[in-house]
Amino acid sequence: MKKTRTFKTLLVTGGAGFIGSNFILYLLRKYQDYQIINLDLLTYAGNLANLTEVEANPNYKFVKGDIADKKLIYNIVKDVDIIVNFAAESHVDRSILDSAAFIHTNIMGTHTLLEAARINGLKRFHHISTDEVFGHLGPYDPPFNEKTPYAPRSPYSASKAAADHLVNAYFNTYGLPTTISNCSNNYGPYQFPEKLHALFITNLLEGKKVPLYGDGRQIRDWLYVTDHCEAIDLIIHQGKPGETYCIGGACEKTNLAITKKILELLGQGEEMIEFVTDRPGHDRRYAIDFTKIKTELGWVPKTPFEEGMKQTVEWYRNNAQWWQNIKSGEYLEYYQKQYGIK
Ligand code: NAD
Ligand code: TDX
Questions:
Q1: Which of 58, 136, 193, 299 has the fewest C-beta atoms lying within 10 Å of its C-beta?
Q2: What would the mean pLDDT of 58-81 be, rounded to a whole number?
Q3: 265: CB partners within 8 A, 6+ apart
Q4: Which CATH number fits domain 9-339: 3.30.460.10, 1.10.760.10, 3.30.1540.10, 3.40.50.720?
Q5: For 341, which DSSP code?
Q6: 162 C-alpha to center of ligand 2: Å?
Q7: Domain map of the chain by residue range?
Q8: Residue by residue, what is the 3-state secondary structure of 274-341?
Q9: Averaged pLDDT for residues 191-212
Q10: Given CA atoms 225, 226, 231, 232 in this order, what sign does their dihedral have?
Q11: Is the confidence at residue 331, as pLDDT, over 70?
């Protein structure tokens, strides 16, 4: 029988973003006795509309703030058992245009949280990381696993890699009970419409074309967001301090294949694809070997690709107000400037 920890108060950072908000909704549905504090700076990617279901729940509290704000963090962390750190600048294209915020949040912010956790002797610090820290793969390379050396290639992935190293340093140097999860690409409800699925589905719903980078043959390993939430739930409760867990969807697809599936589900044709200039340093392929979390914690991805894609397209179709509110002039301007997309 595996040892299962319990917590009273959880600090979830970045809980107004895509995965963090899905995680908070998941936790509050599953655990009636957990107090969740959601600390989020509400950058362009943070959206409290993701959390309307729980805003009146007495077990949920929102605090607007920066994870790099020492005074604020030290004050909040006094009263929590565990930090689950989702807060990050998360979009590769933005890191290419301007990486300063990535260094601030992903590195300095994580460091501030680690210090606060260390000083207050927290039961657990769980850090949400990405498969991008491992670099990229050739077509015949074996998938990434926990032993793959770090080789990040974008300012985003370099900042995430630095944070992972800090987390491991706090385990090795101070004995802080840390865990890290390195997950592949997520898709599902509440994803900001700058990422592949959310951008393409919403563009098509608006009658606009979809900007596919380069030859569209880059490969990602796609995981439905709720499956990621289940994996994190298992790691924080049963994972071993000092360990890293790789999480993936066993679902390698080219961007072209994803685009064609979205077009099919929306009943549209390939003339809606616009091939545009490639992302600089575009990583060719990611894939994850999740044997460790499967063997040690019994996790496997549950949502089949076809079902996840259908649910995702339906969600954006049924929640037009949510994404229309986000797709503001500022956001469109960004894409127009970058790719000349109308
Ligand atoms: P997101 O961009 O949708 O959300 C990030 C959230 O962090 C936003 O709510 C934002 O307001 C908040 N934030 C940013 N800077 C902050 C700061 N300084 N202080 C407090 N809050 C701040 O990102 P996401 O896609 O939900 O990703 C969440 C985490 O998962 C990130 O750490 C990311 O690196 C990791 N990850 C994402 C994916 C993916 O496919 N989206 C895959 C693997 C790992
Ligand atoms: O307009 C686009 N056209 C396009 O061809 C966009 C936005 C993306 N793409 C391609 C680039 C990638 O090969 O689609 C693929 C997926 O792109 P993103 O959604 O930007 O994701 P990616 O760069 O793979 O990174 C994501 O997964 C790992 C998340 O944004 C990261 O936060 C996570 O760590």
A1: 58
A2: 97
A3: 309, 310, 313
A4: 3.40.50.720
A5: -
A6: 20
A7: 9-339
A8: EEECCCCCCCCECCECCHHHHHHHCCCCCCCHHHHHHHHHHHHHHCHHHHHHHCCHHHHHHHHHHHCC
A9: 98
A10: positive
A11: no
What single DSSP character describes residue 240?
A: P
Helix (H, G, I), strand (E, B) or coil at 39: strand
Distance CA 187, CA 190 (A): 9
Q: Which ligand is nearest to the CA of 247?
A: 1
Q: How far apart are CA 169 and CA 252, in angstroms?
A: 32
pTM, two decimals, is 0.96
User: Hey, which of 12, 18, 25, 225 would you mutate to test ligand 1's pocket, going by the most ligand atoms within 8 Å of its Cβ?
Assistant: 18
User: 46: Cβ below 6 Å to ligand 1?
Assistant: yes
**Ligand 2, atom 23: closest residue by C-alpha:** 92
Question: Which among 229, 228, 232 has a CA at the least distance from the CA of 248?
Answer: 228
Residue from 133, 195, 208 to probe ligand 2 pocket by mutation (most atoms less than 8 Å from CB): 195
Residue 242 pLDDT class (50, 70, 90 cuts)? very high
Q: How far apart are CA 71 and CA 89, in angstroms?
A: 21
Measured distance CA(266)–CA(205) in Å, rounded:
8
CB of 45 shorter than 6 A to ligand 1: yes
Average pLDDT over residues 124-148: 98
Nearest to 206 by CA among 87, 326, 287: 326
Task: Give me ligand 1 centre to Cα 55, in Å.
Answer: 20
* Closest approach atom of ligand 1 to CA 190: 3
Task: From residue 14, give the alpha-carbon distance in Å to each of 42, 44, 56, 90.
Answer: 8, 12, 19, 11
**What is the arithmetic mean of pLDDT over 277-286?**
98
Going by C-alpha positions, the residue among 152, 163, 62 that lies closest to residue 108 is 163
Q: Which three-class secondary structure state does DSSP give residue 127?
A: strand
**Which ligand is closest in space to the CA of residue 229?**
1
Contact in structure between 23 and 46 (CB atoms under 8 Å): no
Span from the CA of 291 to the centroid of ligand 2 (angstroms): 25
